[in-house]
Design brief:
It is found in: Nucleus. Its main location: nucleus. Pfam families: DNA_methylase (PF00145). One of its GO terms (biological process) is methylation. The chain is built from 18 helices and nine strands. The protein is of the alpha/beta class and 488 residues long. Among the domains are: 256 residues, Rossmann fold; 84 residues, no CATH class. The strands form two sheets. A seven-stranded mixed β-sheet has the order 2-3-1-9-6-7-8, with helices on one face. Strands 4-5 form a two-stranded antiparallel ribbon. Strand 4 and strand 5 form a beta hairpin. The chain is globular. Bound molecules: S-adenosyl-L-homocysteine (SAH). S-adenosyl-L-homocysteine (SAH) binds next to helix 15.
């Protein structure tokens, strides 16, 4: 059961190319001149860094400092030097700076960066690697997923709640909340955590709160005491959520909960094939037929809608399971609806974590929402009764923007500012938003998981993958907000 579920509930997005595709590798035109090749690689790196929002000077200096290292090393190094400057301007002691920046951001020495880079290449090299020794002994530590995956605490779980004390400079505001798939390739969460101030991820499987699984990691600096769940608590089993499916549910289908809702759904061909296999079988069907049918039902979250008849969940049912209002995504084409819902937050889970903001901000919050999607974070805040004074929302897909804007217009009175691409949210624009709104109380978002999720075998190339590398924008933007707010 566990093995099947683990394999089944990993998300992947359709790579149908409607997202901004960013850079592509350029060919060196077959030139055999090593110097020219190096120059063009250097230009490419500079271009990528500038696209990420760093200045050309910073990019050049980082390349001079670090030499021929991977892009992520350069990001690391620029970030380390930015934070060092920032810390000096905030009068942090050198000791603090060393602890917080160099040790955690890895910007100390070229030799160390080269070593890290080598490890990194191995890590994403496609072959399974053993644990490699690390110079500081920390970066290659595997980040084990807890079992049960209930995070620091969950309503109704008796497990002792975790206590954590964050260093003062990491506590909000701004509070931040970052999300991505729990089951990412090795080293990804360690890297994300290292960039996000070494804060440990909170791994939660939403099946502990609702009727469907969704294993996610969350890194945030919110307090974890005195959380409260959204009421009414959502149903935790399939039959509690959809009692009418009992009628046709065969006794040999032992599922009580659904697997993770994904961006793609089973085809009509498949459900037909299942129907035919069952129609030509005994009742109950032979074990081999049961096994085949159950395997497909688990994979596709199929439900029984008639005699020998299975079907995927309707988008409306997914909205309900994920904690959204009815018809939230209605109006989009069905494929678009599945895609948006497959990628979104499970609202009850996120709301449980965000619930602590309610007493802290009785007059409402200013939110910077990165990779807003269909607004899982905002729906969570709204359902908690937390007023959003202003939301600056960054989302590239037109379909998602339409859904989010539609929901906002119907439910909210605050200010909504929409930006298409995280890459265009420059540091200068961030500074101007910070001064206009008097700072952000919450920076929330989960960057694309396309290159991380398990089913995506073709371009599962980790955090450096084209889409997943957008994580670095989350980190860049959060740092820019922190710096701008520190100067306020
Ligand atoms: N948390 C969201 C979903 C996040 S999925 C929700 O609750 O619905 C990641 C989102 O990032 C997708 O909606 C995708 O369209 C968006 N995205 C991808 N590239 C982007 C970019 N360059 N700038 C802004 N958004 C982007």
């Amino acid at each position: 059961m566990q093995a099947l579920e683990d394999d089944d509930d990993l998300d992947f997005e359709n790579s149908d190319g409607d997202d901004d595709t960013g850079d592509t590798e350029t060919d060196s035109n077959g030139s055999s001149d090593e110097f020219l090749r190096e120059m063009s690689e250097k230009d490419e790196k500079i271009k990528s860094l500038v696209d990420m929002g760093f200045s050309e000077d910073e990019a050049n200096m980082a390349i001079t400092r670090c030499g021929d290292v991977d892009l992520w090393e350069l990001v690391d190094s620029i970030s380390a030097s930015r934070i060092t400057e920032d810390s000096h301007s905030r009068n942090l002691s050198d000791h603090q700076i060393t602890d917080r920046c160099f040790d955690s951001f890895g910007g100390r020495k070229k030799a160390r960066l080269m070593e890290e880079s080598k490890k990194k290449r191995n890590r994403y090299g496609g072959r399974a690697q053993g644990n490699q020794p690390s110079l500081d002994g920390s970066h290659d530590e595997p980040m084990p997923l807890p079992n049960p995956m209930v995070g620091f605490n969950l309503p109704g779980y008796l497990q002792p709640s975790v206590t954590r004390i964050l260093p003062k400079q990491d506590t909000g505001p701004p509070f931040f909340y970052y999300e991505n798939v729990a089951q990412a390739p090795k080293g990804v969460w360690a890297t994300i955590s290292r960039f996000l101030y070494d804060i440990q991820p909170e791994f939660v499987d939403s099946k502990h709160l609702c009727a469907t699984a969704r294993k996610r990691g969350y890194i945030h600096n919110l307090p974890i005491e005195n959380r409260s769940p959204l009421l009414p608590m959502p149903p935790k089993t399939i039959f509690e959520a959809f009692p009418h499916y009992k009628k046709w549910w065969p006794s040999w289908d032992l599922r009580t909960q659904l697997n993770c809702l994904r961006t793609n759904v089973a085809s009509a061909k498949l459900t037909e094939r299942i129907g035919r296999a069952l129609a030509s079988s005994d009742s109950p069907p032979a074990r081999s037929v049961q096994k085949y049918v159950m395997n497909e039902c688990r994979k596709g979250n199929l439900v029984w809608i008639g005699k020998n008849k299975v079907a995927p969940l309707e988008p409306e049912e997914m909205e309900y399971l994920l904690g959204f209002p009815k018809d939230h995504t209605r109006g989009l084409g069905i494929t678009e609806r599945y895609k948006s819902l497959g990628n979104t937050f499970q609202v009850d889970t996120v709301a449980y974590h965000l619930s602590v903001l309610k007493v802290m901000f009785p007059n409402g919050v200013n939110v910077l929402s990165l990779f807003t999607g269909i607004g899982g974070g905002e729906v969570a805040l709204h359902r908690l009764g937390i007023h959003m004074k202003a939301v600056v929302s960054v989302e590239i897909r037109k379909a998602n923007k339409r859904i989010f804007r539609g929901w906002w217009d119907q439910t909210q009175t605050g200010t909504l500012i929409e930006i298409d691409d995280v890459k265009s949210l420059t540091d200068d624009r961030i500074v101007s938003f910070v001064s206009r709104f008097g700072g952000f109380d919450l920076v929330i978002g989960g960057s694309p998981c396309n290159n991380l999720a398990g089913c995506n075998r073709y371009n599962r190339d980790g955090l450096e993958g084209e889409q997943s590398a957008l994580f670095y924008h989350y980190f860049r933007i959060l740092n820019a907000v922190k710096s701008a707010m520190a100067r306020m």
